[in-house]
From TrEMBL:
PROSITE patterns, per the entry: MCM_2
Gene3D superfamilies from the UniProt entry: 3.30.230.10, P-loop containing nucleotide triphosphate hydrolases
Native organism: Stutzerimonas tarimensis
Identification of the protein by name: YifB family Mg chelatase-like AAA ATPase
One Pfam family recorded for the sequence: Mg_chelatase_C
Keywords: ATP-binding, Nucleotide-binding
Family membership: Belongs to the Mg-chelatase subunits D/I family. ComM subfamily.
Length: 497
């Protein structure tokens, strides 16, 4: 047979569109032509494949070989198609049976010796192969990651000869079985280790219960970073769908999806990070920090030290839960449903309002420092809290106060009520759902409207107050939002000057 078809997968963002590798052998001068919009790394694969086939002891056809990677308008890059190309050539030259490739998808880079090398982005391809009803053949180093897609038959090999022996039924490969993979959870830092700060712990509880964004402001050394690092331990465990989303993102980014499977991510980029580092980008778009924090926490310490243009790119994903990176050739959509926790000092020296009176910043310096943060960005942060300095207690016993497990149980109960009532957390409520689930008594509504007018709050801020109040009611197992819930929610909003 002079025509062979092998199934593979490309990588576009966190998606894995199907690619069909078509191989045709024709009479004529020996040549190999590769078409189908291949990038440089794919074009180079023909030399790697030729060497791998010859080194493995197979015959490289001395004919005119045409390789088509369809669809032709989909960009293809990397060495992930090496194995599929090699198998296509072997099948078209009848060295392996072409029919054995019909129910199989192949990914893998070939060494010149014929050894299989791992590639990035295997998990999205595994999920797509499962949906297509095919088995997946990958290098052994990628097998554990591919096995995260439950219900998928995964085959793994170390060399092209093993793959050929499997396809010719001489020595079939056994389906890969993962051992001890599904629970490699590392313990989160415990909230009980934080001394004092009852108001900040309460704000963490509210933020975790309703998936709200949080801004902590206070002098250096008051525990802002310590508090932020405890938030992931208060959130409910990821379900299988969410865990696969997180793992697929880290697979595409090449950051080890199995390192902390299936924990929520906690990302803490430095304030010198650029816009593309935060939102993703590049000629071949890759996920940035906000996508790597999907289903987890993005912690921005020293918030005013970030470049203002960098911070402004957060405004859209905070509302929509995704980021779209457009390039001249394509457009890539990355998920970005994260909780933002930010920390900042109240002034350039950090000690404004400290009882020690050590702050010497002028009013103009304080104003310029706070002006680094735009109003629209601050408006999208639900909870604003000032963290005061606690008395120094070097010999305080650890484990005082409510621990993370107890708080996480309250958070899980509140979130269960939200999901049963509206199918999402309170922070994700749209306007239509808010009218139904955040309804107020007429007196309470007029009271809130008057308070928002006196504080100069925007309509967006008023909506976020309602969402926080709904979370407070859920924590108390209350059916309706009361005046006390509105009052506490208002305390988390600063007045607008």
């Amino acid at each position: 047979m002079s025509l062979a078809i092998v199934h593979s997968r490309a990588q576009v963002g966190v998606e894995a569109p199907a690619v069909t590798v078509e191989t045709h052998l024709a009479n004529g001068l020996p040549a190999l032509t590769l078409v189908g919009l291949p990038e440089t790394a794919v074009k180079e694969s023909k030399d790697r494949v030729r060497s791998a086939i010859l080194t493995a002891g197979f015959e490289f056809p001395a004919r005119r070989i045409t390789l088509n990677l369809a669809p032709a308008d989909l960009p293809k890059d990397g060495g992930r198609f090496d194995l599929a190309i090699a198998l296509g050539i072997l099948a078209a030259s009848t060295q392996i049976p072409a029919e054995s490739l019909a129910s199989l998808e192949c990914l893998g880079e070939l060494a010149l010796s014929g050894a299989l090398r791992p590639v990035q982005g295997v998990l999205p391809a595994a999920l797509a192969a499962r949906e297509a009803g095919r088995a997946l053949l990958v290098p052994r180093a990628n097998a554990e990651e591919a096995s995260l897609a439950s219900g998928l038959t995964v085959y793994c090999a170390d060399h092209l000869l093993e793959v050929a022996a499997h396809l010719t039924a001489q020595q079939p490969l056994p389906p890969y079985q993962a051992e001890g993979l599904l629970r490699q959870v590392l313990p989160y830092p415990d909230l009980a280790d934080v001394q004092g700060q009852p108001a900040a712990k309460r704000a963490l509880l509210v933020a975790a219960a309703g998936s709200h964004n949080l801004l902590l402001s206070g002098p250096p050394g008051t525990g802002k970073t310590l508090l932020a690092s405890r938030l992931p331990g208060l959130l409910p465990p990821l379900d299988e769908r969410e865990a696969l989303q997180v793992a697929a993102i880290h697979s595409v980014a090449g950051q080890g999806p199995l390192a902390h499977w299936p924990q929520r991510p906690f990302r803490q980029p430095h304030h010198s990070a650029s816009g593309p580092a935060l939102v993703g980008g590049g000629s071949r778009p890759r996920p940035g920090e906000i996508t790597l924090a999907h289903q987890g926490v993005l912690f921005l310490d020293e918030l005013p030290e970030f470049d203002r243009k960098v911070l402004e790119v957060l405004r859209e994903p905070l509302e929509s839960g995704e980021i779209v990176i457009a390039r001249a050739r394509d457009k890539v959509r990355f998920p970005a449903r994260f909780q933002l926790v930010a920390a900042m000092n109240p002034c350039p020296c950090g000690y404004l309002g400290d009882p020690s009176g050590r702050c010497r910043c002028s009013a103009d310096q304080v104003q310029r420092y706070r002006a680094k943060l735009s109003g629209p960005l601050l408006d999208r942060i639900d909870l604003h809290l000032t963290v005061a300095r606690e008395a120094t207690q070097l010999n305080a016993a650890p484990g005082q106060g409510e621990n993370s497990a107890a708080v996480a149980a309250r958070v899980a109960a509140a979130r269960a009520r939200q999901l049963a009532r509206q199918g999402c957390t309170n922070a994700a409520l749209d306007l239509h759902a808010m009218r139904e689930h955040c309804a107020l008594q007429d007196d309470d509504r007029r009271w809130l409207e008057g308070a928002c007018e006196r504080l100069g709050l925007s309509l967006r801020a008023a909506h976020r107050i309602l969402k926080v109040a709904r979370t407070l009611a859920d924590l108390e197992e209350a059916e309706a939002i009361g005046r006390a819930h509105l009052g506490e929610a208002l305390q988390y909003r600063p007045a607008q000057s």
